[in-house]
Design goal:
The chain is mostly helical and about 70 residues long. It has 2 helices and no strands. The termini are far apart.
């Protein structure tokens, strides 16, 4: 009789035995997710930096415009 078919013992899947998944990996919290989360955090930090630079440039331009209007 064959073994039961579950995620760590797929029967008839071909390609040999699969890597046993830890409990965290089965809940989609494996190391690949950590890399994805780090990448997303890097993208967010880059976006925030760009937005702050734009805001600072706009503020500097507004102050330069105010100075020209007053002088």
């Amino acid at each position: 009789m064959t073994d039961s078919k579950n995620i760590n013992n797929p029967v008839g899947q071909g390609g040999g035995p699969r890597k046993r998944l830890s409990r965290a990996e089965r809940q989609n919290n494996g190391p690949h997710r950590n890399r994805d989360r780090q990448g997303a955090a890097d993208q967010k930090a880059e976006l925030v930096r760009k937005m702050r630079e734009k805001a600072a440039a706009a503020e500097a331009a507004a102050q330069a415009g105010d100075d020209a209007a007053q002088g």
